[in-house]
TrEMBL record:
<keyword id="KW-0560">Oxidoreductase</keyword>
<protein>
    <submittedName>
        <fullName>Amino acid dehydrogenase</fullName>
    </submittedName>
</protein>
<dbReference type="InterPro" id="IPR006097">
    <property type="entry name" value="Glu/Leu/Phe/Val/Trp_DH_dimer"/>
</dbReference>
<dbReference type="InterPro" id="IPR016211">
    <property type="entry name" value="Glu/Phe/Leu/Val/Trp_DH_bac/arc"/>
</dbReference>
<dbReference type="InterPro" id="IPR006096">
    <property type="entry name" value="Glu/Leu/Phe/Val/Trp_DH_C"/>
</dbReference>
<dbReference type="Pfam" id="PF02812">
    <property type="entry name" value="ELFV_dehydrog_N"/>
</dbReference>
<dbReference type="Pfam" id="PF00208">
    <property type="entry name" value="ELFV_dehydrog"/>
</dbReference>
<comment type="similarity">
    <text>Belongs to the Glu/Leu/Phe/Val dehydrogenases family.</text>
</comment>
<feature type="domain" description="Glutamate/phenylalanine/leucine/valine/L-tryptophan dehydrogenase C-terminal">
    <location>
        <begin position="147"/>
        <end position="355"/>
    </location>
</feature>
Length: 355
């Protein structure tokens, strides 16, 4: 692997820790971008990278993203991310997870882990046998914070869409507002259901088309082919599938006033925020609107660390601040004629002492 500090995504990361435990089959990279606001928190990705350099890039890029997301959510946490470089068969053993737990413990609380792509709640339970610096563990009671972050992420996006509709369309309700939802999994499905209760007009799409047809039927909406959703005429496009979906081609085809959804890293490249802005489309920066999940995970971890019970109401209270943060970004964007993603990045950099 080349020196990490020559990577374009290296941004003065405080820790780039490479873990090799041959005996227990672990190869991992743990990156902490900033601990200015607290321990670096962010999930663990378990993925096979034919070129390990791509794993390093993911760890660098994703840990910086977590610094911004945690800061903008007002959490006392920095940004971190771990990437486990899986073999081509994606072999995951109890020994590998134990070795990973030991590596997290070895950082003495500078990095706090949770689930990400390829890592389940059960995996985190295994990791938690070796370290206390872990979150996203099963919940114990109805009022306890924690568990699957998807519904919390969906709630934040729903509130963010309502704020966007107020800001851009001057409407206090989403009744009759047409929302096109791309990807109806844990997050997108939750967003669609919340909007349906308020009488929004829904068009949904998923690469699993039968899922989209069933949800449309359940909610009284319409489904379209996955490749038709981005150009569907609507008031709000809510991307909740994969990242990098907004580029020159797709932005030219958009027929919406607002883009507000949970998928991470929706802009294919940084300058595509300006392309959206120049087309007059209001963009909700993804790491601001999709912070509901990390708010839940963080509330759970911080309470346990302090020997307290984490209550789900505290999670909802903080998620309720997402619209105000978005308003702040859009107001600054309007008054300075600057794309909202750039405004958000600058705010986040200020909050982590890198402005
Ligand atoms: P998920 O796997 O439950 O759902 C994703 C859905 O998108 C699936 O139904 C999949 O079939 C569909 N999909 C994939 N490619 C598609 C395409 N090209 N067109 C239409 N549909 C497509 O995942 P999720 O947890 O709902 O996460 C969705 C997005 O939100 C991801 O980008 C994730 O990184 C991001 N996110 C999730 C959380 C969370 O709490 N789960 C938090 C922050 C961000």
């Amino acid at each position: 692997m080349t020196a990490f500090w020559t990577e374009p995504d290296y941004d003065d990361h405080e820790i780039v820790h490479v873990v090799r435990d041959r005996k227990r089959g672990l190869m991992a990279i743990i990156a902490v971008h900033s601990s200015h606001l607290g321990p670096g928190a962010g999930g663990t990705r378990f993925w096979h990278y034919p070129d390990p350099k791509d794993g390093l890039r993911d760890a660098l890029r994703l840990s910086r993203g977590m610094s911004y997301k945690n800061a903008m959510a007002g959490l006392p946490l920095g940004g971190g991310k771990a990437v486990i470089l899986a073999d081509d068969k994606r072999t995951k053993t109890p020994e590998l997870l134990a070795a990973f737990g030991d590596a997290v413990e070895g950082l003495g609380g500078k990095y706090v882990t949770a689930e990400d792509v390829g890592i389940s709640e059960a995996d985190m339970v295994a990791v938690s046998k070796r370290t206390a610096h872990v979150s996203g563990l099963p919940v114990t009671g109805d009022d306890a914070a924690g568990g699957d972050p998807g519904p919390f992420t969906a709630m934040g996006i729903y509130l963010g869409i309502k704020a966007a509709v107020r800001h851009k369309l001057g409407k206090d309700s989403v009744e009759g507002v047409h929302v096109a939802v791309q990807g109806i999994g844990s997050v997108g499905g939750g967003v669609a259901k919340l909007l349906a209760k308020d009488g929004a007009k829904l068009t949904v799409a998923d690469i699993d088309q039968s899922r989209a047809v069933a949800l449309a039927e359940e909610l009284g909406g319409r489904s379209v082919d996955a490749d038709a959703i981005l150009s569907t005429p609507c008031d709000v496009l809510s991307p909740n599938a994969l990242g990098a979906i907004l580029d020159e081609n797709s932005i030219a085809k958009l027929d919406t006033a607002i883009v507000a959804g949970g998928a991470n890293n929706q802009l294919a490249r940084a300058h595509h925020g300006k392309t959206l802005f120049d087309r007059g489309i209001l963009f909700a920066p993804d790491y601001v609107i999709n912070a509901g999940g990390i708010i839940s995970v963080a509330t759970e971890y911080l309470a346990r660390r302090d020997g307290k019970e984490a209550n789900v109401q505290a999670v909802h209270d903080r998620i309720a601040t997402i619209p105000a943060r978005l308003e702040q970004i859009w107001d600054a964007s309007d008054s300075t004629n600057t794309p909202p993603d750039i405004v958000a990045d600058r705010m986040a950099q200020d909050l982590i002492g890198r402005g």
